[in-house]
Amino acid sequence: MAFPRVSLMRRPTRPPDETAISVIIPVHNGGANFRACLLSLQAADPPPYEIIVVSDGDSGASRRLAEKSGVEVLKIPTPEGPAHARNMGAHHARGDILFFIDADVTIRPDAMNRVAAAFQNDTALAAIFGSYDDEPLETNFLSQYKNLFHHYVHHTAKREASTFWGACGAIRREIFLMMGGFNEGYRRCLSESTPGTSEDIELGYRLKKSGYKIELIRELQVKHLKRWTISNLLKADIFYRAVPWTRLILLEGGFINDLNTRVSDRISVICICLLVVMIPAVLFIPWLLVPAGLLMCTVFWLNRELYRFFREKRGRAFAMKTIPWHWFYFFYSGLTFAICFVYYRGMKIRGCGRRIETGDQDEQTCK
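Above: the chain sequence. Below: its structure as C-alpha cells.
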C-alpha cells in the first residue's frame, strides 16, 4: 500500500554498525500529553533515527505541534484507528526497527539504547515490548490503580511472551512487513460505532504462531499520562480490550497462560461470578454464606501478591481500596466474555465465521 509522504524530518547520519530505530506515534487530538511525549523523545540519548507521527483524523493542533518539532508527519483525513495509522507509519519508516509508542506516554532517556541492545544481543529476537512505570503522572485513585495494575501484570509475566503491546513495543521492520502489519479489521468489533484496539495482541499471536520470538523487557518502561475515570476505564476495559480479545481467544481455540489470562485470573473470574449469584441467594438460603466465604478467601489468596504490591507502593489504605475495584474488574470481564462467547458463536452458526476471522466490517453479511 502506498501512502503520500507529507513532510520529512532531518535524520541523523548513523554509523553502519548501529541499529536504526524508527519511532512511530499515532495521534488523534493528543493535547498536552502529546507535547510531553515529543519532549521526551527529544531528550532521548541517543536520539532515534527518525520519528514518524501519524495524524489520525486530528483536528490540526497535534499535527502542527509535530511539524514544529521537525518530525515527519503523515496525515489521515478521517480517523481510521491505531492499526491503520501504525501500518501507515511503518510503510514510510526507513529504520531497521519499528518502535511503536502511544501519544500519551513519555519515554526514558535510555529507551533507544535498551531497544537497540535487545535486538543486537539476540539476532533471533523478532519483537519486544515494555510496560508502564510505577509512577503514573495522574494522582487520582483510578489512574494510580489502573497503571500500577498494568505495571504489576507485565512485571510478573513470562519474559518470553506470546503477545505484543503497541503502547511501547518494537519489532524488526522486515518481519513486521512480512507478517502484513497490524490487522486493521480490529478497528471495529460489535458495531460500526465501537472501536476495538487489540490489534497489537493479535499481531503477537500471529508472530508466535509463525515461530518468531517475542520478549517482554521489564526495564523498558514508559510513563502513562492518561487520567483514568470510571467511564473511560470501563469503556476501555470492556469495548477496547475484552470484546476483541474474546474474539481472538475464540479464534485461537483457547487461552494463553500469561498476562491477563493466567489460570489464577480465570479461576478468580469464575469465583467472583459465582459470588454475584450466591450473595443475593443467601437471603433465602443462609448456609450459602459458607461457600461464599470460601470463594472470597480463594480470590484473595490467588491475588495476594498483587495486593501486597499495592500496599508496598501506596500503603495499606490504598491496597484495601483496590480490592473491590479488582473484583469488579473480574466480574465485568467475565460477563463480557460470556456475552461475546454467545454472540460470536451465534455468528459462526449463521455462517459469519469469515467476518470474525478477517474483521470484515459488513454487518449485512450476518443478517
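The beta strands are 21-27, 50-56, 72-76, 97-101, 105-107, 125-132, 160-161, 168-172, 213-224.
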